[in-house]
Amino acid sequence: MRLIILDRDGVINQDSDDFIKSPAEWVPIPGSLEAIARLNQAGYRVVVATNQSGIARGLFDVKTLNAIHQKLHAAAHQAGADVDAIFYCPHAADDNCDCRKPKPGMLQTIASRFNVSLKGVPNVGDSLRDLQAGYGVGCVPYLVLTGKGERTRAKGGLPPGTLVFSDLASVVDSLLKDSKPLPVDEITPQKDGRRRQA
Ligand SMILES: [Mg+2]
Ligand SMILES: [Zn+2]
Questions:
Q1: Closest CA to 27 of 75, 67, 63
Q2: Per its UniProt record, what Pfam families does this chain match (predicted)?
Q3: Nearest ligand to residue 53 Cα
Q4: Which residues surround ligand 1, an ion (CB under 5 A)?
């Protein structure tokens, strides 16, 4: 079995600094669901691991999170894609749980649930903590530049061997052998101070 672990916000759907608090706020990144469909067709099982501290903060409840995930699953099915499971951490940073990324707890749960080693399993995220959570348990870190990805790349300190791609669709192109990663440090600043992908 081939497994791939994806972060949710900023990888599959558009991220928001104000949290995704309702199904209406959950909007897929163009091409992401089709990319998951291509993974499925190539034999990958696709699992999501997502920090959702908005629950601990009281911004939304588990019922709403389930409704958001129903929308995700339905949208995936519309695109011919299937997300096997969504694991989430509902805690805040100061809860000191074992599941909030960068801790590896969620990924270890995935490993035991699917009865697989995580060694070499692609782990796709837009934040450093996503990649750190997977790196310690043997995953291959993939940074996407959607969501917080540009900021994450600019800050540096990525786990050794991190592969950088513009988005999930490009990650999948690469996994299915159609594209090469972008160089980690090749950043082209724009006049307005924003950065665009190399
Ligand atoms: Mg994210
Ligand atoms: Zn947790």
A1: 75
A2: Hydrolase_like
A3: 2
A4: 7, 9-10, 126-127
89 Cα–ligand 2 center, Å: 4
Whether residue 193 is predicted with pLDDT greater than 70 in this model: the reply is no
Instruction: Tell me if residue 123 falls in helix, strand or coil.
Output: strand
Helices 62-78, 32-41: inter-axial angle, 10-degree rounding: 70
Nearest of 167, 160, 90, 103 to residue 129 by alpha carbon = 103
Catalytic (active-site) positions? 7, 9
Burial grade of 89 (CB within 10 A; 0-12, 13-18, 19 or more): buried
- For the chain, the average pLDDT equals 93
Distance (angstroms) between ligand 2 centre and the Cα of 107 equals 12
Query: Where is pLDDT greater, at 150 or 186?
Result: 150
Among candidate residues 189, 188, 196, 181, the one with its CA nearest the CA of residue 150: 196
Confidence label for 1 from pLDDT (cuts 50, 70 and 90): confident
Fold for the domain defined by 2-196:
Rossmann fold (3.40.50)
CB-count burial class (<10 Å; 0-12, 13-18, 19+) for 58: exposed
Pairing of strands 188-189, 195-196: antiparallel
Question: Cα(157)–Cα(38) distance, rounded to whole angstroms?
Answer: 31
pLDDT at site 192:
52
- Structure-block tokens of residue 139: 């995953």
